[in-house]
Write the C-alpha cells for this entry.
Amino acid sequence: MLKATFRNINSNLFKVEVKDMYTLLTGDDTTEGMRVQAKNTLQSDGVNTDQLLTDFVSHQSIYTYLTATRGVSKGSKSSSCVDSNTQTIQKLRGRSVAVIEQSLKSLRNTQRLRLGDFNGLVETQIYCRDCGTQFEVIQLLDRDECDCDIGTDSD
C-alpha cells in the first residue's frame, strides 16, 4: 500500500524504505511521537493517513484469503528460497540507496558537496571464476545458473 501511495503522489518518500515507514505507522515499539511524525511527513505530501491505515491488511489475512478462498497453495521450497533471498538482496539494496542518498543530501544541504538533483543506484555484479561469466545478481537468480558445466560428466 505504501509503495503504491508513494508512486501515486510522486513523492521523494518513495526513496525511504517502505518497511521502515510501515513500522513507524503500525509498530508496537513505535512511540506516539514517532507515529505522529511519520503521519505528518505523509500528510505534507498529500497522503490521507487515516485512509491509508484503514487500507493496510495483515499478512495473515491475505494468506488466509488466498489459501481458503482462492485455493492457492505455497510454492515449492526451492523457488520460495530463491524468492526470499531475492527479496533480502533487494531490501538491502534499497536500504543502501536510502543511506547513500541521505548522506549525499546532507552534504549538499550543508554546502560540503555540489550536486544537482540525483538518484542513487546500487548494482551488484557476480563473477564466476570457473566459467568467467559475470551477471547482475538478480539476473543470475532469475537464470538459476551461470555458464558452468558443473555437475555434468566431461570425461
In short: The beta strands are 125-127, 134-136.
